[in-house]
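Recall the central idea of this unit: under ordinary conditions, the amino acid sequence of a chain determines the structure it adopts. In this exercise we apply that idea directly, starting from the sequence alone.
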Amino acid sequence: MDLVTDYAWIGWIAIIAILLVIEMLSGELTFLMLSIGGVAGVVSSLLGAPIWLQVIVVAVVAVILLLFIRPPLLKRVKRPRDPQKFNVDALMGIAGTVQQAVSPTTGTVKLSNGQTWTARTSTARQIPSGALIYVQQVSGATVYVTDQPIPPTNTGEN
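Accordingly, the structure predicted from this sequence is:
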């Protein structure tokens, strides 16, 4: 029995390794909390605690971590994405001015962010030079525009 007690820390390290691998696959922080409980088992084993006490220490530490540390960590990890739009998404609805008349086949616009784009209309209607436009869609290096303001869209992300 002394042999088991003396080398229990090796078993705890093996359990910690297995739990960390499972955590890497799941990403839910549950197995991370259990593996940290296993670290408490290693420490208690190295301090000479009997096996039954090591198991109790591991269980208590794991339960405390699961109840009090995991929920705020999950909240922090799973918080909504940054509402700032980037790249093509940032162009949707942006205003600009027509530099060369825009039709379904040709046109150039300068957007309010300073960029100049090849532009097209999605309808047969032509937008004259100097008119105010709004970006409806981006396809490659071409923006599809309208002269009607585009209402903001709610992405539904929370």
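The radius of gyration is 30 Å.
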